[in-house]
Amino acid sequence: MIKSSAAIVTLLTGLNFLNYLDRQLIAAVLPHLQQDLRLNDTQGGWLGSAFLLGYMVTSPLFGWLGDRMSRKGLIALGVLVWCGATAGSGWMKTFAGMMVIRGMVGIGEASYAALSPTILDDVIPSSWKNRILAIFYAAIPVGSALGFVLGGVLDKHYGWRNAFFIAGGPGVLLAFACLLIVEPERKLRPEAMTTRGALDGLWSSERYVWAVLGFVAQTFALGGFSQWAPKLLHQKFHLELHTADFYFGVLVVTTGFGGTFLGGFWADRALGEDRTQVAIRVCALSTAAAVPVALLSLLAPPGAPWLFFGAMGLAQLGIFVSMSPFNTVVLGAVPPETRATAMAASIFAGHMLGDLISMPLVGYLSDRMGGNLAGAMLILPAALLVNAIAWFVSSRRPAHVG
């Protein structure tokens, strides 16, 4: 049995790594997949957000169940579903089939993403919380980067279908390992908390509500960049697809790893008695700094890919700084007995109003603009500006009442 806090953090972080590796494979192989299945950019965008449809249907359910029953079993079940669906993506031969199987991937992410932070919150000492969450969330850029790099390499040498077959296997072992976790004692017993009571607890926190609004805008922007940046590099800057995947992957892991740890360190060291207010202020400042450089990256001329990489690197650094502090806000700005519901609700809202919309919307605008993908992506820096404003407002609002 797994009792050690360090072992639990390591296991859940490893799953977070594989989660984002699987998620980014679709962007890494997208141009060749589109060519094979004869899809336009609008359809390509929907494939990027298809998993979110399954995610949105099931994430509130997993959040509700996670406040009431064993979390490790729910996580293991979800991981098995997502791994099987990832492998199954390689068998699909139609747009409709690919949409269905990618939607099933979302079921796994819904269980894992909503519940694992609550287990971490129960085992991490408060004085180390931001730094440990920084380790956990550093798996997002590392996994995403390997998804781009591995997807590009496998696509080049074995074809895009085999990329999905190979990526679907490793998570199965970790899923069974989750069943060995000795769940920590919850900070408060949630049995008496009704669904209405949990939602009232969330709405009573103005800080939480504004923080989630900002997260929606950030997810909109980040999803659009992740889905379309490799194709933009291939199309506008004339890089080979595997080369574009590799360099963009390196950029993601470098800025994501550095930014996530910087955010955790900054939020732990910044002055202020109200720690969730300090955390959301860190988020707002880092995101505001990302806005102008994100715009600059899209305006880089075709002959200057170095300008795109430099500006996009700074933008992603600013975005990833907020990763750990934002989740500290979600867990700390609401009543403790509603944490799983708060986490699930924030992720649900972020995807439903964020990247679920942005990925196909950028594709649609690109089709309408005659394939001008860079022009279509200009809506993404605008979303980051909305993100920063919402988080500044959140930092000036009270947390939950009572």
Give the topology, please.
Blueprint: H1 5-28, H2 30-37, H3 41-66, H4 71-88, H5 95-123, H6 129-158, H7 160-167, H8 171-178, H9 195-203, H10 206-235, H11 241-269, H12 275-299, H13 305-321, H14 323-332, H15 339-368, H16 373-376, H17 379-394
Structure description:
With 402 residues, the protein is mainly alpha-helical. The protein has a single domain (5-180, 194-394), classed as Growth Hormone, Chain: A. It is built from 17 helices and no strands. It has helices spanning 5-28, 30-37, 41-66, 71-88, 95-123, 129-158, 160-167, 171-178, 195-203, 206-235, 241-269, 275-299, 305-321, 323-332, 339-368, 373-376, 379-394.
Strand content: under 5%
**Could you say what the CATH architecture is?**
Up-down Bundle
Give the H and E element order: HHHHHHHHHHHHHHHHH
- Sheet with the most strands? none
CATH topology call: Growth Hormone, Chain: A
Short description:
The protein is mainly alpha-helical. It has a single domain, classed as Growth Hormone, Chain: A, CATH 1.20.1250.
What are the key terms here?
402 residues, Growth Hormone, Chain: A, mainly alpha, 0% strand
